[in-house]
Amino acid sequence: MKLLADLHVHSRASLDGRSSVEALIETARTRGLSAITVSDHDLCTPLPDCKDLFLIPGVEITSANGHILGLFLDAPIDFAALGKFPPPAQAIAAIHASGGLAVLAHPFAPHKLAPEEIARLGFDAIETANARAMLKPGANEKARLLSQELSLPGTGGSDAHCAKELGGCVTEFSCEPSPAALKEALKAGAAAPSRSAPANGSGRDCPKSAASKAAARFCRAARRFAILPRASRAMCFTYKGELPCPL
Length: 247
Description:
Number of helices: 8
Helix content: 25-40%
Strand content: 15-25%
Number of strands: 9
Largest sheet: 9 strands, mixed
Radius of gyration: 17 Å
Structural class: alpha/beta
Distance between the termini: 38 Å
Shape: globular
Strand order of the largest sheet: 7-6-5-4-3-2-1-8-9
């Protein structure tokens, strides 16, 4: 059975996310997706029960050397124990301890780890089709070649930060319709990352207004220079419906 899954999606639980989980579910249904992974930044977002769409528990950990996706988590990550900006090896170990698969996210957008480091860290897969990485010429192709070189499965995901972007890249499965079957197919390399249909979103498609752009600039500067952190966060949530802090 053919199943399409977007394995990299952010809800508004992420500081830079703009859509509720409910909005993501509704959009996924209209775009013919069978599953989505809600992978918020450094947060395991609680997911509702959903009968006609597989909601895969996930996370995107900001490690000291780039982003690492945790897919098919059986339990939330203990971020109190993990800490901020953990070494990649510790992030991967935390994902595995929670029953998940560790996926190197958009490795060349930007480039954070050398190929030899990636090879020894114990990743389960590499994200080789990321809709936002398509804005960086050659990034997805380099990731695909790296996955082949290291004999690791590839995954596809939109990296959506609002519902409009959902399905920009997907992972195609041919297996039984269950989260367990999807997980096993991915581990076995029996999944195909790909660019989605043109009707789906891609890249940075979320709406922007002058006010939201100004708020984003304020958030970015405040957080970069560690000033007014509470005001920065409040501003992000004030403009949550359009363009929160893009970090």
